[in-house]
Amino acid sequence: MGLEQRLDPKGTSEMGAVEGASTQVANGSTKKSYRILVVDDNPSDRFFIKRAINAHYGCDNRAIFPEAEDGQSALNVLENLPADETIDMISTDFDMPGMGSIEFLERLRGDARYARHSTVRVVVNSGTERNSKEKEDLLKYGVLEEDILRKPDKHYDATSFASVLDKYCPK
Fold first, then answer.
1. Which residues are bridge partners to 123 per DSSP?
2. Helices 101-110 and 71-79 sit at what angle, rounded to 10 degrees?
3. Residue 37: per-residue pLDDT
4. In angstroms, what is the C-alpha Rg of the chain?
5. Contact 128, 26 (CB under 8 A)
């Protein structure tokens, strides 16, 4: 079954909702926690991405952040993730030394070692506007055009990721 059959345009997969941990909030109710793999060669960008995501949820403990500095180290994180842990979303930089996002996605979607992660939604961050060929390549691996986020000039804030978090990791 191809990726286009596993992921519908609204971002849900044939596997259904991913079971995750939960966090107790002030009023006593529990909310789902998310595991979001942050892949970026710049440690400052990883920091600001995590901070923006936490700000979106209004607290510091709704998201768990495995990190990687390039595509190959992200694949290593996924390969070594315990069987009872899942990744809910991947945020990756487009341009990275070593293995960039296109090769990372090609391996993630096509290599049997990563089959259990093959339908995870991926958000691509980019410092520049991507051309139509790059967007076409990303779409081939399930990244919608609205999931290609432009890196802000200074730093990320809660609105940077709001649309994709609301879609793939709702409050």
1. 91
2. 30
3. 97
4. 15
5. no
Cα dist from 137 to 15, 25, 27, 78, 167, whole Å = 24, 40, 45, 22, 22
Length of the chain: 171
Q: Where are the alpha helices (DSSP H) in 7-131?
A: 43-57, 71-79, 101-110
Buried residues in 121-141 as b, exposed as e (16+ CB within 10 A): bbbbbbeeebeeebbebbeeb
Question: Alpha-carbon distance 78 to 106, whole Å?
Answer: 14
pTM of the entire predicted model: 0.80
Count Cβ atoms within 10 A of the Cβ of residue 92 and give its class: 0-12 exposed, 13-18 middle, 19 or more buried. Answer: buried
Question: For residue 104, what are the CA distances in angstroms to 39, 82, 91, 101, 111?
Answer: 10, 20, 12, 5, 10
Supply 170's token pair: 């709702």
For residue 148, the SS3 value is strand
pLDDT at 124: 94
| 8 A C-beta contact, residue 92 and residue 67 | no
